[in-house]
């Protein structure tokens, strides 16, 4: 029991001498000043914006001040996260970055609904009493160290004879007392003892208030809500979809401009070589012997085979490039669907009413969905006509409808190409609906967002 008490007492007394205590006090100092400054900046900007925006004339300027407050609050939150990581080694993940959108009204609307920024405002307001305690901790440590030095100060500056010396005053911050008057060297030891108590108390107070501040930072300045985490995942997925579409477009251009061009040149050169070899054969038929004639025949056969292989490889590359990104999509989705319908084995018609052009990734998904549905109808429906209708049903939604007058019976649950289309559409939160009763007709509806 006595050993446990001594161990606990030793831990309490040694706390001010550790490196952790120095880091805790540094965080109290910098964090307290930053919190105090952030509180007044936030209060002044926010109250000014709210006050001015009450009047009709000052609404615009008031909204500007409020949006500025939210932007500054995000920066202050980032500062507090960096201080916490740099000085105490506690990592707090940043909330999702602000997405400004397009247009002035959209930017203002999104800024006013920026939840991480409003939580940062709450942190700046709650931080005021926390900052007061942190700065008090630094002050308590400073006065405690000064009081600890009083015996040495008395020996160095007050230890002489003659005359009457006024007593020294040792300041002990509340709640530990007030002022201790030191009139002799022995009287300096109570002041030193009070200073030691202040230093020890400040060390543990710093740990406690910094732990509380760390929880506030984690709860208000980090991605605390599940909705924000989902929003961030949706944003990164949208970026991945757009990046993959752009990468496929680059691959298609590289194939078209690189490998296809070289294979086309190879096929042309082989054709010219074959023609040249034929001319040489006609010119030298009488002078050549049978062996030379056989060699030329063999060479001609090899050139013919190489040319056929080059032409076949060129055709495969063109099909591959069209499968990655059809060049007709560069002229718009409606034009691409018209071209696709023109190549259908079953007569197909296209009606399009697209207001805002979708993102390239969405256009690509819609095109390949239409191509797959036309191919399915050609293989299985025994239809006489295919109708393709694409339009924007409501804001932000692109609707593709492919119908035929065939025998029906299409089922996405039987592992057909429709299940693959459903997976492709789901990557951008799209939906697919199949209506195909026995005897027909078949109607497949694909809903896609205009932006991923």
Structure description:
The structure is a single chain. The protein is of the alpha+beta class. It is 66% helix and 10% strand. The protein has helices spanning 2-14, 19-54, 59-88, 104-112, 115-148, 150-158, 188-220, 226-283, 290-324, 333-342, 360-381, 417-426, and strands at residues 168-171, 179-182, 348-353, 386-394, 397-404, 431-435, 442-449. A 5-stranded mixed beta sheet has the order 3-4-5-7-6, covered by helices on one side. A two-stranded antiparallel ribbon has the order 1-2. Helix 2 crosses helix 7 (188-220). The mean pLDDT is 76.
Query: N-to-C terminal Cα separation, in Å?
Result: 66 Å
Annotation, overall tally of beta strands: 7
Low-confidence stretches: none
Helical residues, percent: 55-70%
Net shape: elongated
What is the helix/strand order? HHHHHHEEHHHHEHEEHEE
Q: What share of the residues does DSSP label as strand, in percent? A: 5-15%
| Rounded radius of gyration (Å) | 40 Å
Main sheet makeup: 5 strands, mixed
> What is the count of DSSP helices, taking H or I runs of 4+ residues?
12
Going across the major beta sheet, what is the strand order? 3-4-5-7-6
Average pLDDT confidence is 76
Determine the structural class based on helices, strands and strand pairing: alpha+beta
Multimerization state: single chain
Brief summary of the model shown:
The protein is built from twelve helices and seven strands.
